[in-house]
Amino acid sequence: MNNALSVASIVIKELYRRKDFYVLFVLTAIITLLMGSLHFFNDDRIVRYLKEICLLLIWISALAIAVGTSARQIPAERENRTIFPLLAKPITRGQLIAGKFLGCWLACGLALIVFYFFFGVISVSREHQWAAASFFQALWLHWWMLGVVVAMTLLGSVVFAAPSSNGTICLLIILSILLLGRHLNKVAVQLAEPMSGVVSAVYFAVPHLELFDVRDLVVHNWDPINWLICVGATLYAAAYAIFFLFATWLVFRRQLVLRWQPGCSPGTRVGRAAALSPIACWAS
Amino acid sequence: MPAQAVTTAKLPGMKPILKIEDLVVEYRTREFGQRVTVAVNRLSLEVFPGEVFGFLGPNGAGKTTTVNVLLGFVPVTRGAAYIFNVNVRDPIARQRIGYLPELTYYYKFLTAEELLRFYARIFRIPRAEIGPRIDEVLKLVGLDTARKRPIKTYSKGMQQRIGLAQALINEPDLLILDEPTSGLDPIGRMNVREMIQRLKSKGKTVFFSSHELGEVETVCDRVAILHQGELKATGRVSDLVEKYKCNLEQAFLKVIGYEPGHE
Ligand SMILES: Nc1ncnc2c1ncn2[C@@H]1O[C@H](COP(=O)(O)OP(=O)(O)O)[C@@H](O)[C@H]1O
Ligand SMILES: [Mg+2]
């Protein structure tokens, strides 16, 4: 645990020292402030509409942060070869993965707190009422959903070689789950048998991230959902995150630290040639 | 000169600190079907406490692969390797070793001090000792004045020195250095050589790979020569030189079967 926390603290340090993180944060802050300054706020429907847009922006930025940071972690360690001195220390690969996960997830949590804080302050100052419990539930469930997203992206990053393609693939999968996930079972009913079975299997297998989307509670200042359901959703997210992390560990554990070393893959022949002629290497 | 004198320098009753037994490492490359490259073939060696051991061979000989096995980065195909009598598959084998990789960038966004603190925490060095330890290794490698600068501002030589600093942070008994002088200028090389000598005088064991024979001659107690994954010779530098009746470089070329004038 100590090792995982050390790795996590490095992940978070990197995030706040990188510029692109600030860009997202500043962007959201500006938009939130802009909307807050609009004077149409005395019309109920417009207020709701603006809150919806704000929350949508928060969701998109948070997804971008979660996928962007976690897709990069392990490939960057490999590319810069920082993974060599790290794994040469008494740290297991499981601890490394746990640390990367914790770092990304906690960073997402911090970003969410900042986003929701801005959003909360502005909407309260305009509406003069605050459904605190619903607000907390929206934040909480959002954070746990990002836990699943981070774990899933980490798994992708050890399965797919290129970090950018992994990021794109993960974003596509996550967006399709969010948008289509709840309709899959209805689609399945309308399809012919082999496909219908496949679609319902997918419906039961994928993590239903859309369940964690309770933005409506905040938009309409509704009462909080049953706390037991909230706890259940948390456990559901934890189970999926653990499953993905376990799968990441299974894959990563058996991998070479570097799948291709310089002077190896295409250079295998180069390496060979140099081995046969010592002059070639003394000259270098 | 009997051949045995060249192959071992074992003192009676001394336990090896590093032991490689009949090691075979194969890489499987996916391209062109399942092609197998044998990077290390039936390698056995022992390194004893207090020795400076040079692991020599031309590029592609399998030096980095062997070092990677010692650190648990590459799975062994057959055979085994032990450090302090612990199989290298066990992470605890790495508690008392320091390792300098062949070519590495360190976390660019951290300062030297933060990087060392991070590694010190993984070694579970007690909190109160971390500060003095960092001061000590930074002074030793001469990065004292740059300790608060992010590593991305470092030159290549400074990068290599922070590498040495991280290898020394846990006061290791065994140092494994993979081509510690490659890519350094003459002054940098001399610094590394001096460092190795200083570590030796403190009673540390150093295992380092190299293809620079000049430096090996001056610092090593014993050497092993590897070629195409196979061990061609081991022994004291002086014994090798005596056996082949020439300097180390020529002995090296003879050992790996290279005849000048051919090719
Ligand atoms: N990850 C890898 N995949 C496939 N082949 C590899 C890999 N790493 C090294 N090799 C091959 O193994 C042999 C030994 O390489 P290496 O240990 O790097 O040699 P050295 O460090 O002595 O220059 C070379 O033929 C090299 O091409
Ligand atoms: Mg090498």
Could you please describe the fold and organization of this structure?
- With 284 residues, chain A is an all-alpha fold.
- Chain A has one domain (2-256).
- Chain A is built from 13 helices and no strands.
- The two termini of chain A are 45 Å apart.
- By secondary structure, chain B is an alpha/beta fold.
- Chain B has helices at 3-7, 63-70, 112-122, 127-141, 156-168, 186-201, 213-219, 237-244, 248-255; strands spanning 18-29, 35-47, 52-56, 78-83, 86-87, 97-100, 174-178, 205-210, 222-227, 230-236.
- In chain B, the strands form two sheets. A six-stranded mixed beta sheet of chain B has the order 6-7-8-3-9-10, with helices on both faces.
- In chain B, a hairpin with a 5-residue loop joins β1 and β2.
- In chain B, α3 (112-122) packs across α4 (127-141), α4 packs across α5 (156-168) and α8 (237-244) crosses α9 (248-255).
- The longest helix of chain B is centred in the last third of the chain and has 16 residues, at 186-201.
- Chain B is globular, with a radius of gyration of 19 Å.
- Chain B starts with a helix and ends in an 8-residue tail after the last helix.
- Mean pLDDT of chain B is 85; it is low at 1-9.
- The chains are: A mainly alpha (284), B alpha/beta (263).
- Chain A binds chain B through residues 2-3, 6, 9-10, 13-14, 17-18, 80-82, 84-92, 254, 256-258, 261-265, 268, 271-272, 274-275, 277-282, 284, and chain B through 27, 29, 31, 37, 58-61, 64, 68, 71-75, 91-92, 94-95, 97, 99, 101, 103-110, 114, 118-119, 121-124, 163, 166-167, 211, 227-228, 252-253, 256, 258, 263.
- The complex binds adenosine-5'-diphosphate (ADP) and magnesium ion.
- Residues 63-64, 102, 179 of chain B line the site of magnesium ion.
Strand-residue proportion of chain A = under 5%
Whole-angstrom Rg of chain B: 19 Å
Biggest β-sheet of chain A: count, sense, barrel? none
State the end-to-end CA separation of chain B.
31 Å
Sheet/helix structural class of chain B: alpha/beta
Strand and helix order of chain A = HHHHHHHHHHHHH
What's the total number of strands of chain A?
0
Order of helices and strands of chain B: HEEEHEEEHHHEHEHEEHH
